[in-house]
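re: ur msg from earlier - yeah i can do the zinc ion complex, just paste it... oh wait u already did. ok heres what im feeding in:
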Amino acid sequence: MTERKPRRPTERQCSVCGQTFTATRYDASTCGPTCRTRAARATRTGLQRRLAAERAVQSLIDQTTESGDAADLGALRRLRRLIDEALTADKIRNDQRDGKLPTA
Ligand SMILES: [Zn+2]
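and the outut:
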């Protein structure tokens, strides 16, 4: 996940099963289709967790807005913004993976 330099086939460690494999693409991080699918599923699961966190914090914001505690509301809005940023980063990464966006 962290390195993406090599353009020639290189030995790498699969990010899912840990086995050494020969990467033929510079962005390969898994040894084959099975591990690639598992890695993609894990990413989606992470996204779903963050979406759930966003819903939870929004519901807290709504409740706090009614009770009117400005300090709590400020903290919750900062939290909400952090979650939004994480979601945006995920969306960009997924779009790049699916070929909807060019990789940087
Ligand atoms: Zn693997």
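cool cool. Residues 10-97 form one domain. ping me if u need the other ligands too
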